[in-house]
Write a structure and sequence with these properties.
Order of helices and strands: EEEEEEHHEEEEEEEEEEEHHHHEEHH
Helix content: 25-40%
Strand order of the largest sheet: 1-2-3-4-5-6
Number of strands: 19
Structural class: alpha+beta
Oligomer: single chain
Shape: elongated
């Protein structure tokens, strides 16, 4: 038995029934009845523990289905092989229907699409999709009968329809970007709707990086290639390693950013603008670029400004040719010297004396030195030494 994850039941492909472990009963999906296996007769009988009304309704439903089968000339077999299925569908397609025969709902085939090959990690190998005679759509997002999470599948990719006149399913591409291939042939060019293409048993449909095989069976019949439990049992289960999981996480994160437009254009280079001349780039190419962290040349009262000074170059660009500033070039030429005075003294107290260029650090150091000298002269320890020297001087010789 094989576990069918959708219903939570175990499928027995030998008997064709599903086993319910909670009720310890077999379930017939065709009739919707619960059965119990009789060891003596080795047969499946309707469970008597169910309510009488439900058992009677199930028997009535089963009798009606048997009566409808007797009215049809074509008798279906549960163990019908693939060749017999194709011949039955071909018979209905050619219009060969016996007199008085009507196409019943139980005789209408459904199409099962199985993923047999894929290179997209988001698509599970062996996934099964069922489309009934009502038709359906194929897409990557939204509500679709065939929800295929492939990167090459559009949100609304294709449509599947059924025509009862010839008992045939048709596939139409709804203007997808990456296209649809049926048996290796593309239906239409990008973003153009294609014509209805008939699809039948063992038809190969490729969308993006995923390849699906179609299975067409009358009613609810299946084969070993499209039974959910058998498909999942045959599919190899690979446990991804830690590096594969990390790579998958990065791919999903990049796809999520791309879908929301996050980070697009940040790593792209500058786009050229027609007619624009980058003068700064041209200047850097001709005159070069200063090294990173280089300090500009500073001015000093003791040294003339050099030609590499930015202020010097700015004045040259403005027309300065040397000498004093002003229209008549009568501006001062010598730098203004620093005049040092006593603290809190007026301008006329003492004649100031000029010093060389004193930086703020040197000025602070001089102030600290003066304060240290004042504190040293007022220290009581110095008075003790002065007293001892006076006593030595007063001693008689």
């Amino acid at each position: 038995m094989v576990l069918e994850e959708t219903s939570g039941l175990y499928y027995d492909y030998k008997s064709g029934y599903y086993y319910d472990a909670e009720k310890s009963l077999f379930y017939d999906g065709n009739t919707g009845t619960y059965l119990k296996y009789n060891q003596e007769t080795k047969e499946y009988v309707v469970d008597s523990s169910l309510p009488a009304e439900e058992v009677a309704a199930q028997r009535e439903l089963k009798a009606r289905k048997e009566q409808m089968k007797r009215h049809t000339v074509r008798k279906r077999q549960l163990s019908e092989d693939l060749d017999q299925t194709d011949s039955n569908c071909a018979k209905k397609k050619n219009g060969e229907r016996d007199e008085g025969e009507e196409l019943q709902e139980s005789d209408i085939p459904c199409i099962r699409m199985v993923v047999v090959n894929t290179e997209d990690e988001r698509v599970k190998l062996g996934s099964l999709y069922i489309v009934t005679y009502k038709g359906g759509t194929i897409g990557s997002k939204g509500s679709h009968e065939v929800l295929l999470p492939d990167l090459g599948c559009s949100k609304l990719h294709a449509r599947i329809t059924f025509q009862s006149s010839n008992c045939t399913y048709y596939l139409r591409d709804l203007g997808s970007r990456n296209g649809t291939w049926v048996n290796g042939k593309r239906l239409s060019v990008s973003k153009e709707t294609s014509k209805d293409i008939p699809i039948g048993h063992n038809t190969s449909v490729q969308i993006g990086k995923s390849k699906l095989t179609c299975h067409v069976h009358p009613g609810s019949e299946t084969c070993l290639e499209c039974e959910p439990g058998v498909i999942k049992q045959n599919c190899p289960t690979e446990v991804p390693s830690a590096p594969d999981k990390e790579e998958q996480r990065k791919q999903e994160l990049s796809e999520l950013k791309r879908s929301y437009g996050i980070g697009i254009g940040l790593n792209d280079g500058p786009r050229p603008i027609h007619g624009f001349i980058d003068r700064a780039e041209e200047r850097r190419r001709i005159h070069g670029v200063d090294p990173v962290g280089a300090k500009p040349e500073t001015a000093s009262v003791d040294q003339a400004i050099g030609g590499k000074n930015k202020g010097f170059r700015m004045l040259e660009k403005m027309g300065w040719e040397g000498g004093g500033l002003g229209r008549g070039k009568d501006g001062i030429k010598e730098p203004i010297r620093v005049e040092q005075r006593e603290k809190l003294a007026g301008l006329g107290s003492k004649p100031p004396f000029q010093t060389q260029s004193v930086s703020a650090t040197e000025q602070k150091r001089n102030e600290i030195w003066k304060k240290t000298q004042k504190r040293f002269t007022k220290a009581p320890l110095l008075n003790v030494f002065n007293q001892e020297s006076e006593d030595e001087d007063q001693k008689p010789s």
